Amino acid sequence: MGKQEEPVTGTPASPELTTTIHLSALRSVPLPRPLEEVFTLLTLEDRAVVGALPKNHAMLIVVAGPSKGSRFLIDSDRTSIGRSSEADISLDDVTVSRSHALITQLENGDYEIADQQSLNGTYLNATAITHSRLAVGDEIQIGKFRLTYFNGKGNS
């Protein structure tokens, strides 16, 4: 017969002190989001700015979180997003990695976002992504920041 195990006694193991927060669980974004709904969330000034975006340019508008209302123009082939002051789009919050995400312009003028192995991940329309093509009205979540994507291909 096999040896019978004795019950473990003593103090319970200490609880895990570190956890990962899955930001997508905090809310859901209906897919697809109607563009009419996206534009009603913008101020008149934001609508005018977005409507005047030149072709092959894009913009992110912070719709929730710190810096709500901030606008970030994307006008180069590569735009870095992170907590670092050296990032093209600097989002100063501990929920954002120093080098969090990268937006790249594709040959056809579209843009793609890629997570840069960030701690909290990059979410597109409430789904964690490693990389994905962007479409007008997409919501990007980076840490506590929720940003809406627009491009200069006839948004108005």
Notes on the protein architecture:
This protein is 9% helix and 31% strand. It is mostly beta strands and 156 residues long. The strands form two sheets. A six-stranded antiparallel β-sheet has the order 2-1-11-10-7-8, with no helix packed on it. A five-stranded mixed β-sheet has the order 4-3-5-6-9, with no helix packed on it. The termini are far apart. 26% of the residues are buried. The mean pLDDT is 83.
Question: What order do the strands of the largest sheet run in, or round the barrel if closed?
Answer: 2-1-11-10-7-8
Shape: globular
- Cα Rg: 20 Å
In terms of DSSP E residues, the strand content is: 25-35%
Largest beta-sheet details = 6 strands, antiparallel
Distance between the termini: 79 Å
Count of helical segments?
2
Helix share, percent = under 10%
Based on DSSP secondary structure assignment, what is the total number of beta strands?
11
Secondary-structure element series? HHEEEEEEEEEEE
Residue stretches low in confidence (pLDDT < 50, at least 5 long) are none
Average pLDDT reading: 83
Provide the structure class.
mainly beta
